Amino acid sequence: xxxxxxxxxxxxxxxxxxxxxxxxxxxxxxxxxxxxxxxxxxxxxxxxxxxxxxxxxxxxxxxxxxxxxxxxxxxxxxxxxxxxxxxxxxxxxxxxxxxxxxxxxxxxxxxxxxxxxxxxxxxxxxxxxxxxxxxxxxxxxxxxxxxxxxxxxxxxxxxxxxxxxxxxxxxxxxxxxxxxxxxxxxxxxxxxxxxxxxxxxxxxxxxxxxxxxxxxxxxxxxxxxxxxxxxxxxxxxxxxxxxxxxxxxx
Length: 250
What we know:
Layout: H1 2-27, H2 38-47, H3 49-83, H4 85-98, H5 103-114, H6 118-142, H7 146-154, H8 159-196, H9 202-211, H10 215-249
């Protein structure tokens, strides 16, 4: 009943937003080429379903590959920072300072380096996703219980065993928090990469539709991008629950 009330209230809220979108803009006198009706957007999604499915698959592939590379690179850097005082002193501050540079300003450089192939889009996704994964994992390593750490050292635990049985479990909640953030913004990274130069993907589709003043097609692409972000977020939540269930059984 709690879930029914929770999801029921959310469904009512979505319905109200949909009605506001459908009838609010026309009643306010907003032209359809600026804010189209929601029914027109869904009609366009149905008419362009094959093209949208093709472009959505390409964007999803770029986001997932970039997210996987971000996980590998972010976790590797976090382990290095945790294990090396030199890395904590010099590399970690540089990682924080790097976020003062607007990522979108670095995106054209990725296109210059990797060209207009898929790797430039993946590189932009990594720029977006690497930081939250790395920083959250580093913070997770810092959250270990010092009493347990000293106890394991006293009992003769090796660095490898301490890392595997103490540091990794302590860092998992923070890691998954960063991964959830990265999963949602990975789609944005892929889209920006496609805007800068690509021949396929939802970013390219929306860019072309905008040039033709087709607001309904642009909103259709935006809705699909939102759906992709939600799906990736849900996948990370499922993965987190699977890890938690596995550790509980152990």
